[in-house]
Amino acid sequence: MITTQPVAILAIIILLCKAGTQRATANDLPQLHISLQDESFEFRLTGTQADVKTPWILQSSPDSIKWDDLAFIDDRTGDGDLQIEMSAASTPGQEQPTRFFRARQLEGDERTMREYLAARSIWRTTGIDSYSMNVNWGVSWFFWDGTVTVRNKQVISTETNITNFFEPPEPRTIDDWFDDLKRAIDQKAERIAVTYDKTFGFPADVYIDISSMIADEERGWTISNFIPHR
């Protein structure tokens, strides 16, 4: 557990490893050490085996129930520990007085996940919560194209340009589009093609096909004319 007070703190969390890892005693379980200095978190993961190549991923949660993937922990210190430093602005739940962190071990490297987490970190760091954008979204042969305006992370208006939906689809924020993409990654979609915005990090051009054996479930979207608002 960690509190976001403007003082340096240290926390140690016993990690939950992936199923199938070698059983460990209480004394040799990996541990996550967390310190907060100024506006940056430093995470150090001790007790991992340097010769094991399966990567570790850092997670956070406001309640220790729902966990968000944050970043891969790749760099090793001279002592053999894994370590990563992240700005506080790049982690979710900044408005929460308490946050939990843990790490989990993957079964193998995942390039799509790495790109996703790097892009979402860029988006969070921008701190943008009000903006307008043009969204062209489609699933199977249904499509919607229009302008979406967001204020304080909530959609406040939409304007349809053209659509063949019987009813307008539920409008989404940038965070909602990130979440949609993350669900496809977690589902091991057969094909995911993504181009992220180079400045703000959001998924600007996306195509997802969960399975070639399932008809009419392909979906995708394009986000353009993104304008931040004060």
Précis, in short:
The chain is mainly beta and 230 residues long.
Written account of the structure:
The protein is mainly beta and 230 residues long. The chain has two domains: 108 residues, no CATH class; 98 residues, no CATH class. Helix content is 13%, strand content 44%. The strands form three sheets. The protein has a six-stranded antiparallel sheet with strand order 12-11-10-15-14-13, covered by helices on one side. Strand 10 and strand 11 form a beta hairpin. Helix 1 packs antiparallel against helix 2. The longest helix is centred in the middle third of the chain and has 16 residues.
- Span between N and C termini? 33 Å
The average pLDDT score comes to 84
The helical percent reads 10-25%
Largest sheet, described in full? 6 strands, antiparallel
According to DSSP, the number of beta strands is: 15
Order of helices and strands: EEEEEEEEEHEEEHEEE
Q: How much of the sequence is in beta strands? A: 35-45%
Name the overall outline. globular
Going by helix content, strand content and strand pairing, the class is mainly beta
Count of all domains: 2
* Cα-atom radius of gyration: 20 Å
Question: Helical region count?
Answer: 2
- Poorly predicted runs of 5 or more residues: 1-26
Write the layout of secondary structure elements.
Layout: E1 2-3, E2 10-14, E3 31-37, E4 40-46, E5 56-61, E6 68-73, E7 75-76, E8 82-87, E9 98-105, H1 111-126, E10 131-139, E11 142-151, E12 154-163, H2 174-186, E13 191-196, E14 203-209, E15 219-228
Keywords:
230 residues, mainly beta, 2 domains, six-stranded antiparallel β-sheet, five-stranded antiparallel β-sheet, 2 helices, 15 strands, 44% strand, globular, disordered N terminus
